[in-house]
């Protein structure tokens, strides 16, 4: 388990590198690695830009029936998301929307959990399994 | 990325070039941030009456972008620089 | 199994009469083996298992249980490979009870412990069944993957034009594989056009259509244009009634139509050839003159051929 701070653009790059390494280690295919790292990039940027900075946790996991995977956990103590439903709709496929990237990131992973309270911050947990 | 946009704008203004080729063969990850940057570059280029072609996208990146639902507006795509040039020079047969 | 006195008494008894028990066990198993393994091999396997079982009965060694499980899995796999049914393997384990009972029948003080021992052996026998099952599941999963791979070929139709004939249902797992193979082939061949043929896709609903659209988007990011072919009449009706829009993606009824379109888009034209193949067996090559009436001897032919323009060689179409 690795804990990484997200306070700058460089930190986002570091998160990507860590996630890539973890995904490769647990046998994710190249396409799945790319998807997970891209999702991590989205979520890390969100944490930085909308959450005012936070932390990322990268964990190697194993399912009950032996499949390996990678679990990511992003937390921030920012303003939180007022309307989660809105944030998760596809409002940015044109590339000009709010760009929260949450809905996109959700499509790239196998498991996605989001909790956010206005005023207390946001936390997102995602898992991607190897096939 | 912002530096790239600035340099590009200067270059386009100075040379009056009619096309821009952005080679992303070495780019492993394209997220929505980078995607928007690429579209912005396309918009900037168009202001200088130049067309932008993105070449060398990796299959894994293409699949991820499709899943992400990101459509790169304002730019065209080609397999490699050679084909990109063909598009810019109007040599490739128009579609449809 | 706990390490209290009862277990250890049984364990000691088993150790004492080890050879007799193993011998009888082997005998019982070999009776049902029908020549698939030799008595010696069986005895060796059983001897190994026996010492592990005794350790577990005694409860003295913590690792023994894990080792016993591993040994059983190994035995199970080996037997399955040799063509034994899982019942045969399990029954083989169960016969240990018979072998031990014959011995223990006279020793009344061991009777209560025998029940516990018997239960242990039952568990072991069932375990061999379970590992057989698990192994079959693995084979099925491997075959499913192999079938998926086989049913997704990407073929080259022409210079710069590739085709993906889809056979069977198009679910998201299949779509991923199709996208990966299609894009890899685009990069490898430098093709500019892909034809996705869905003649073999039995049903096209909104989900399948979405998968197709995704595939086309991905291919376009690599600069390739796509055509969807193999739209059957019923499929066309379903698509319209479901309100599915293919937007600016060209769709054609047959692969042939799609190929014609792709060739047109590539700036190529198919023209009727005006000359006939030189019939001389010596040449084996097509004569390079553009029209039949001007066909003259070539060095490869050594025979002079001229035909009246109205004459057609028998059996050949113009």
What does this structure look like?
The complex is a heterotrimer of chains A (131), B (96) and C (318). In chain A, α1 (9-25) runs antiparallel to α2 (30-49). Chain A has a single domain (2-129), classed as 2-Layer Sandwich (Heat Shock Protein 90), CATH 3.30.565. Chain A contains 4 helices and 5 strands. Chain A is of the alpha+beta class. In chain B, α1 (2-15) runs parallel beside α2. Chain B is an alpha/beta fold and 96 residues long. Chain B has one domain: Transcription Regulator spoIIAA, CATH 3.30.750.24. Chain C has helices spanning 5-16, 18-31, 39-58, 62-81, 86-104, 111-150, 172-189, 206-221, 233-241, 255-265, and strands at residues 155-158, 161-167, 193-200, 225-229, 250-252. In chain C, β3 (193-200), α8 (206-221) and β4 (225-229) form a beta-alpha-beta unit. The longest helix of chain C has 40 residues, at 111-150. The model of chain C is unreliable at 302-309 (pLDDT under 50). Chain A binds chain B through residues 16, 20, 30-31, 33-35, 37-38, 41-42, 45, 90, 92-96, 99, 101, 103-104, 107-108, and chain B through 28-33, 35-36, 39, 58-61, 63-64, 67-73.
Features:
heterotrimer, A: alpha+beta, Heat Shock Protein 90, five-stranded antiparallel β-sheet, B: Transcription Regulator spoIIAA, three-stranded parallel β-sheet, globular, disordered C terminus
